[in-house]
Amino acid sequence: MSTIEQRVHNFLSILRHCQRLGMSVERADERGLTLKLPYSDAIIGNPVTGVVHGGAITTLMDTCCGISTVCFLPEFEICPTLDLRIDYMHPATPGKAIYGFAECYRLTSTVIFTRGVAYHDSPDEPIAHVVGTFMRMGKPGRNGMLASIDGGVA
Known about the structure:
One of its GO terms (molecular function) is 1,4-dihydroxy-2-naphthoyl-CoA thioesterase activity. The protein is α+β, with helices and mostly antiparallel strands.
């Protein structure tokens, strides 16, 4: 397992809501991240049709965009969500797993810009498009305080 894959698995493993939803890592490298959200009764928004609740897709894509920062940055940094925009193209198909792909496409000293798609079988047929921005707060320090991006304590 590559260093990036290990960092992504470690990050995902500490997010309790992702564990409860059964999310898993499908692929992680310097180009981006793909997570899988399995279909389950817990994510159904409409019990009559079995359609997945939009909040489950939002959770998948916020997590995917947020963790994609781990694929892009040379070291782990704390990067909370500043803004997330999701455009839904069509409802997810009942009974099918949903995949989320995200990549970082721009990095500044304070903000990381991400984009991605949620899909079933192909990213070329998206359920939703997403763009997200994440604040760079620095690396966690040994004493529990934040270390600034340049290495000092924030």
